[in-house]
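Single-chain item
Fold in token form
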Amino acid sequence: MPFSTQWFLFYYGILGLLLTLSGSYLVIRYDPIKTWLTKAAGRDKPPVLLIRILKYLTLFTLPGLVLAFFPFSWIELVFCFWSLIILYIAAAQLVRWKQSRLLIKRNQATIADIIRKSGAIMLSVGFAIFLLAYLVVKRTIE
């Protein structure tokens, strides 16, 4: 099994598991996240936890972008570009933290719904990533 296949299998497995578990948590128990987000909106700097998450996603995505070419795979290449777009959108929100925190403070009533919807999206993306892992395993077996 080539190293790139092992890398993507590991990456898809870990990311799928994290998205599925955290998405389930956000759907079921959104109150602690709402409280944390409200407290974070009171600070001038963006939350360190979100910065760390983006940093580690970047550290996994960039090698995957290179490994998608050896051997060349459209699926992994599209996944890496999709990951980079998601990272860009999330990082842009952290760069505009002053505006984002004002929006969080103003929309306290709808924060819980947004958190639950985000959790549901994370849950469905986690399952889709597990399907990508299945495709990697299936392609390796054939």
About this structure: The two ends are 11 Å apart (CA to CA). The chain has six helices and no strands. The chain has a mean pLDDT of 92. The helical segments are 3-28, 31-41, 48-67, 74-95, 97-106, 111-141.
